[in-house]
Q: What sequence folds into this?
């Protein structure tokens, strides 16, 4: 495995004039004066695309010149923050450290990187077992699943977040225990009134 990058990496990009300011990114590729579909950039300058000399570096304009600098948060010591790009050494499963190039199945993306499929399956199984064990201990009855502030799985009591735009009566599958259940939205009736015509007064 390659070693992590120095977070202070600063390599002058000799190909790009320091006056250029329009730089976009597409994956690891840095694009100056990017074309809009097939039309040249409105600034009239030619489009130039460069791959960084090492994965995890990206181009940054510093004091009027372009440099390759580290964009991998793990190299930079910024833990827990999502990284737009990651260096080769850190392109590994968070749990077991398997490199992405060694994976045989599509990994699960997470906030901090990715979990390989076997690790994710292990985490899911552990979460399910834990939820079901808690459920068995808690002695719930049906009323614990009626008129609740949140959608709570009746198999394992996990709270399932539902976006407002997805509100509706439906059959659901719990993402923790895989149990199926029926969701019904309850509406609380409230009353509003407004005077018609002249207000009746004393
Ligand atoms: Zn890194
Ligand atoms: Zn793993
Ligand atoms: Zn459940």
A:
């Amino acid at each position: 495995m390659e070693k992590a990058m120095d977070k202070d990496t600063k390599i002058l990009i000799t190909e790009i004039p320091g006056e250029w300011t329009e730089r976009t990114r597409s994956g690891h590729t840095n694009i100056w004066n990017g074309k809009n579909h097939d039309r040249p950039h409105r600034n009239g300058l030619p489009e130039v695309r460069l791959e960084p000399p090492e994965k995890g570096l990206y181009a940054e304009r510093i004091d009027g010149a372009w440099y390759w600098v580290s964009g991998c948060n793990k190299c930079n010591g910024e833990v827990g923050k999502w990284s737009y790009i990651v260096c080769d050494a850190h392109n590994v499963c968070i749990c077991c450290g398997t490199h992405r190039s060694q994976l045989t199945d599509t990994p699960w993306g997470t906030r901090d990187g990715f979990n390989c499929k076997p690790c994710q399956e292990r985490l899911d199984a552990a979460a399910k077992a834990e939820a079901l064990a808690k459920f068995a201990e808690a002695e719930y009855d049906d009323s614990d699943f009626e008129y609740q502030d949140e959608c709570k799985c009746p198999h394992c009591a996990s709270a399932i977040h539902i976006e407002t735009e997805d509100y509706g009566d439906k059959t659901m599958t719990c993402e923790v225990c895989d149990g199926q259940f029926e969701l019904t939205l309850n509406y609380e009736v409230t009353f509003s009134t407004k005077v018609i015509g002249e207000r009746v007064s004393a």
About this structure: Helices lie at 117-138. The longest helix spans residues 117-138. Residues 1-86 form one domain. The first strand starts at residue 10 and ends at 12.
